[in-house]
Amino acid sequence: MSGVEIPTSMTSMPDAPPGARSPDAVPAGAGPADGLGGLSLAGVALISTGVILCIAVGDVLTGPDVNFTLLYLAPIAFGAWLGSTSCGFALSGLASVVSSAADLYARQGTPLPGGILAWNLVVQLGVFVALVLLVSGLRDRLELEQQMARTDPLTGLPNRRAFGEVVALELERARRSGRPLSFAYLDCDGFKFVNDTLGHREGDALLVVVAQTLRASTRAIDALARLGGDEFGLLMHETEAAAASALLARVRLNLLAAVERHGWRVGFSIGLATFAEAPGQFDDLLARGDELMYEAKRTERGSIRAATFGAGGPAGPGSKPGPQPATTYAPGREP
């Protein structure tokens, strides 16, 4: 066995490098409030505080006989869900204080004993804090489920679904800018042999090493994903054919060196599709890279098969490469 540690949960995934690698990554300083038109934490706190003060005014005007506890729950839940747990706790304290102050003001003629006031304050604060904990726990669980749905649990890379979302954004950006982009479809030759002869645990360790090497060998601006099985995708933003070929040649050498250190007799067939004009959709881009990867496996296993698709070239899946012919280079070892 290779001794490579295989992550078994989301918490044990390899750390992502700096940069916009993962589609699931949350920008520094961002929080759940970003889902509401990019509202900041300060904005959430300000809105919640304003609502609490308005409720307090109504509490004073209606007198001590009408209980407003349920109304205070709404801005507290708003702050805890779209802001943070700490924000929810602060709002809970504020709501408890203004609610008690409103009750005291309304009872100017018949004040309650200090013990009863303290008890009411503690009970109300306890209800508010319990709500914050419930809302925060639900929010954290939802965020975890969303991340798990977009992340490959073995390698920690984005999965096909998350990759498709990133590619869709990059295609739209490429259409606006007119800049080229390149996509590499990578397949691990000999992976089935490792799985069948050394066991699935060793096969999983191989995939983890491949993912870690790809992370370390590519740029932070590139989008990387595990597309399924032993296949990986790499989208290179605003990268022409020559630069993409140079990057992939280096990536392939790093991959071969990494598997050599662990004694795995595997190679890597790669299809590199460069688009002078962005294709119509994610499936078109994927089909181009997939076709080139299988051409590499058929013509010279362990090589890189590259082609450029120009503005006049076909865009639909299953069609032939564009005006510039495909080339094969960097032959590798047969596993």
Describe this structure in a few short sentences.
The protein is of the alpha+beta class and 335 residues long.
Structure overview:
The structure is a single chain. This protein is of the alpha+beta class and 335 residues long. Helix content is 53%, strand content 13%. Helix 1 (41-62) packs antiparallel against helix 2, helix 1 runs parallel beside helix 3 (85-106) and helix 6 (191-198) runs antiparallel to helix 7. The chain has two domains: 32-149, no CATH class; 155-329, Reverse transcriptase/Diguanylate cyclase domain (Alpha-Beta Plaits, 2-Layer Sandwich), CATH 3.30.70.270.
Observed structural traits:
335 residues; alpha+beta; Alpha-Beta Plaits; elongated; disordered N terminus
What's the layout of helices and strands?
Blueprint: H1 41-62, H2 69-82, H3 85-106, H4 114-149, H5 160-177, E1 181-189, H6 191-198, H7 200-217, E2 223-228, E3 231-236, H8 241-261, E4 267-275, H9 282-299, E5 304-309, E6 324-329
Parallel strand pairs: 4-5
Antiparallel strand pairs: 1-3, 1-4, 2-3, 5-6
Helix pairs in contact: 1-2, 1-3, 2-3, 2-4, 3-4, 6-7, 7-8
Residue share in helix: 40-55%
**Mean pLDDT, as a whole number?**
81
- The termini sit apart by 18 Å
SS-based class: alpha+beta
Radius of gyration from CA coordinates = 28 Å
CATH level-3 fold name of the largest domain: Alpha-Beta Plaits
Total tally of structural domains? 2
Taken in chain order, the helices and strands follow as: HHHHHEHHEEHEHEE
In order across it, which strands form the biggest sheet? 2-3-1-4-5-6
The major pleated sheet works out as: 6 strands, mixed
Question: What is the assigned CATH homologous superfamily of the largest domain?
Answer: Reverse transcriptase/Diguanylate cyclase domain
Shape: elongated
Give the helix tally: 9
Low-confidence region ranges? 1-31, 312-325
Task: Bin the strand percentage.
Answer: 5-15%
Q: Give the class-level CATH name of the largest domain.
A: Alpha Beta
How many beta-strand segments?
Answer: 6
- Please give the CATH architecture of the largest domain: 2-Layer Sandwich
